[in-house]
């Protein structure tokens, strides 16, 4: 029974941390503030997460299933990726752990490392493998995957971090689809 309580407490702490980091960023959030919001002692945050940095990294851990984007012909890759990207950007609230991590990457080396690892694992490498599987040689597949990854990160920064208007979601999806497909096709 204590294990369930510990797991529930840890989860409650993470939920409050995600909300606070999402709304206020890394610097403004305190261990005490998260502990108070979660109704726990700050010592539990230290015990479960090792402190604020560990809490931040746990609260911003993201897993996105990317495999469905790679089912199908390469000629439709841009459309599949764009649909998934716009859906995530449109459906995920402002305290999206990936968005929080993205915002914090400029001020926290741990956040930058976590974001780079996430992008390698969920973007660059899967796109590279997919392009190789569709018949491109390794070097060509790697350079095209890197171009797609950099493009999407740049658009994400502009759209989600800098909050620049890029049109409505349908227009954004069409533009992303066309551009990603051009990059995939070389």
UniProtKB/TrEMBL annotation:
Q: Does the keyword DNA-binding apply?
A: yes
InterPro entries from the UniProt entry: Homeodomain-like_sf, HTH-type_TetR-like_transc_reg, HTH_TetR, Tet_transcr_reg_TetR-rel_C_sf, TetR_C_16
- Protein's UniProt keywords contain DNA-binding: yes
User: What keywords would UniProt list here?
Assistant: DNA-binding
Q: Which Gene3D superfamilies match?
A: Tetracycline Repressor, domain 2
The entry's DNA-binding region feature spans 30-49
Question: Which ranges form a coiled coil?
Answer: none
* Ranges of residues in domain HTH tetR-type: 7-67
Q: Which Pfam families match?
A: TetR_C_16, TetR_N
Protein name as annotated: TetR/AcrR family transcriptional regulator
Q: Which organism is it from?
A: Nocardia xishanensis
């Amino acid at each position: 029974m204590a294990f369930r309580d510990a797991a529930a407490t840890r989860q409650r702490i993470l939920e409050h941390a995600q909300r606070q980091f999402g709304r206020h960023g890394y610097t403004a959030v305190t261990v005490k503030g998260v502990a108070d919001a979660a109704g726990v002692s700050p010592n539990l945050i230290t015990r479960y997460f090792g402190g604020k940095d560990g809490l931040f990294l746990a609260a911003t851990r993201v897993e996105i299933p990317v495999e469905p984007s790679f089912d199908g012909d390469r000629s439709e890759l841009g459309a599949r990726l764009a649909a998934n990207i716009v859906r995530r950007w449109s459906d995920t609230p402002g305290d999206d752990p990936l968005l929080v991590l993205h915002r914090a990457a400029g001020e926290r080396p741990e956040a930058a490392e976590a974001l780079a690892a996430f992008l390698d694992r969920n973007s660059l490498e899967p796109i590279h493998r997919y392009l190789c599987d569709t018949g491109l040689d390794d070097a060509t597949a790697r350079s095209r995957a890197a171009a797609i990854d950099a493009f999407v990160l740049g658009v994400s920064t502009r759209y989600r971090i800098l909050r620049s208007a890029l049109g409505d979601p349908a227009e954004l999806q069409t533009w992303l689809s066309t551009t990603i497909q051009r990059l995939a096709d070389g």
